[in-house]
Amino acid sequence: MIEVQHPGMYSSIQDLGRYGFRKYGVPISGFMDEASAVKGNVLLGNDPNCAVLEFANAGPKLFFTKPAIIAVTGASFNIMLDGKEMNPNRAVLVNSNSVLEMGKAYKGVWGYLAIKGGITANVVLGSRSYFKGLTREEKLKKGDIIEISTLSESSSQEVSWGEQLPDMDLYRTIPVTEGPEFHTLSSAIRLKITDATYVISPQSNRMAYLLDHTEPISAKEIVTAPVQPGIVQLTPSGKMLVLMKDAQTTGGYSRIFHLNEKATQQIAQLRPGEEVRFKLV
After folding, report:
1. What CATH number is associated with residue 175?
2. Rounded CA gap, 161 and 74, in Å?
3. Which residue, 181, 203, 207, 246, has most beta carbons within 10 Å?
4. Is 194 inside a domain boundary?
5. CB-CB contact of 173 with 280 (8 Å)
6. For 2-11, what is each residue's pLDDT tens digit?
7. 137 neighbors 242 (Cβ within 8 angstroms)
8. Considering the entire predicted model, what is its pTM?
9. Domain that holds residue 187
10. Rounded distance, CA 129 to CA 193, Å?
11. Carboxyltransferase domain location, by residue (predicted)?
């Protein structure tokens, strides 16, 4: 098992998400950067849906009570294993009574700790992903115990030892397609929202990323309609919101753009204060 000595920021257990329950108002949840999380699982020979530890901006400090094979992917963190620098994006053997400390991110936001065999958290509605009000926990806290699989004789044979994955790339121009209400905007506002430069707000989280800007833009409210991760909403007051994995299932703001899964993951890795632009495709 693993003992949480310090939880870091926004640390939680996530997998590919919770599907088939949106009609009941249950968000998808799951990895904010699916590509990075799945790479870690694949590197270890895990199923892509194995639960991993997700964290943002500042990672956790963890004590391993038994051996484990791990991989850290996603954003770039200063990682220390038993006081020595540890390389990310590759399989690493952790001995019993070892301490793993992630430190602060210096590139990107969301990091992932994959563990051989996965994390054995409770399954709720088909997923181990944490979500407030649905799972027992919303995020990790000091003293929490994370149950992990025990290594078997064949575990090591399933791991891609020696393979070094490339570091994550950052993208500041994000491809988007027109949303359902894009055509209701005036031609002047359409031009402004596609030409504008936005700044990631510190208020951004797993529900939505708020984009700060200085453009005189706005859109009318609509009759409540379905929304999903990747939808970009424009409010009557001019706020721009990119819905993320814990987003609600319906909303009353104009849906002006849509980001596909890859584009949503790209914008998720941009830090507060960083600039981003949209490219209509």
Report:
1. 2.40.100.10
2. 19
3. 246
4. yes
5. no
6. 999 999 999 9
7. no
8. 0.95
9. 168-280
10. 34
11. 23-281
